[in-house]
Amino acid sequence: VHQSKLDFFCKLGYGKQDICKVLENLGQEALEDDVLKELIRMGSKPQALESQAQPSPLKLVARGSCSTSLGSKWLGEDESDSSDHLRPIVIDGSNVAMSHGNKEVFSCWGIQLAVDWFRERGHTYIKVFVPLWRKEPPRQDSPIADQHILEVLEKQSILVYTPSRKVKGKRVVCYDDRYIVKVAYEKDGVIVSNDHYRDLQNENPEWKWFIEQRLLMYSFVSNRFMPPDDPLGRHGPTLSNFLSKQPALPEPKWQPCPYGKKCTYGNKCKFYHPERPHQAQLSVADELRAKIKVPLSLGKEEEQRNRSP
Questions:
Q1: Domain check: are 123 and 225 in the same one?
Q2: What pTM, to 2 d.p., does this model score?
Q3: Which of 236, 217, 237, 235 is CA-nearest to residue 226?
Q4: Staple partner for 159: which of 74, 137, 154, 286, CB 3.0–4.6 Å?
Q5: pLDDT of 70 strictly over 60
Q6: What are phi and psi of 202, to 5 degrees?
Q7: Is residue 173 part of a domain?
Q8: Domain range enclosing 264
Q9: What is the pLDDT of residues 160-210, one digit of tens each?
Q10: Is 97 in contact with 111 (CB distance < 8 Å)?
Q11: C3H1-type domain spans which residues (predicted)?
């Protein structure tokens, strides 16, 4: 009888020590309801409830990693992009590779140079789009150099292949430029290419504005990837502001007046005059009036002194 009651209350989740104490006090022939009331009166709780009441111990997680797979899924690259101060980068892999190969060879080393340049600047979101048929062995009409770089970038989740297939011996290729512009537009990033995408500009007016404002052109100088310091022209933003989500305000730069000392605009002149840094910029007429008033005032003071007794 003792063992059966012990097993019954153990299944309910109570500890053996508490059950034995109650059975000793009430006797072995006590009813189950009386034993249960006594356990509740003693304040004993089932072990399942105790485990729920106690907070789970904190787990030490390595810095920069997520504690669960679900957290890593939802707090992945999208969350890091929103907290990053640099814009996402979308590279036209075919355009960059052909430019580095002088439009004769698909040079994968040019793609690597572009990716390394943005990595050194601190960009975390970098995607390169290349057609899938570039994984095929090179042919005479489409030579490829350093093809192993594509495999390395694909393992790093940087390279993305646009789909293509063969139908009755003919290759059917999807338009990779549309992938590039669409991803860059959705991510509010920057397109790295020397192509103007005029056909896509005509398709969508929003894409037209985006391509005009977010297209970063480049040049290769002795195996060196070099984008321009003024991507949108002389009067546009600098390269650092162009690649930043929150561009810094430029410092005011005073342009010297092209007329120099011969300028007749005076205080209305919008340019800088180095010959009068500590003087108020007055017009020529005001300067002449100021020079004339000084001697007249001095002459009146002398006259008043002579008249005074």
A1: yes
A2: 0.55
A3: 217
A4: 154
A5: no
A6: -75, -25
A7: yes
A8: 251-281
A9: 998 877 777 777 778 888 899 999 999 999 999 999 998 888 888 888 889
A10: yes
A11: 251-276
